[in-house]
Model the fold of this input.
Amino acid sequence: MATLFERIIAGELPADVVYRDEEIIAFRDIHPRAPVHLLIVPHKPIPTANDIADGDAALIGRLIVVARDLARREGIAEDGYRLVINCNRNGGQEVYHLHVHLIGGEPLGPMTAKRL
Ligand code: DGP
Done:
C-alpha cells in the first residue's frame, strides 16, 4: 500500500507544497513543532534511513541542498535551524517514507527536548 507521502506526491492527498522537482517534494508538516516546519521528501519510497542504498547518495545529498535553499527562502538561514531524520521506533518515526524535517523560526533548545 502507498505511504501517506506517496499519496501526497501523486496529488491524491492535499498538502501545502513549497517545492517540487522530478525527484523531491517539500511541504509543510501538518503538526508543526516550530514556526517553520517543512518535510523534504524524495519521490522514491525509501522506508527508513536503514534502507538508503549506496546508489542513493546523490539523492540524499540533494535533500540537504533543497533544505538549505528552503531555509534561505523561509528566512531562517541566518538565525539557524535543525535538520532531522527520524529512524524507526526509538527515533520516533511515524511515516515510513524517508524525509528530512527542516525546523526553525525560534530557538529550538537542546536536541532531545522535543519530539520532532
Ligand atoms: P516522522 O516522525 O519523522 O515520521 O515525521 C512524520 C511527520 O509527518 C510528522 O511530523 C507529522 C507529519 N505528517 C503526518 N501525516 C501528514 C500529512 O498527511 N500531511 C502532512 N503535511 N504532514 C503529515
The mean pLDDT is 95. Strands lie at 17-20, 24-28, 36-42, 81-84, 100-104.
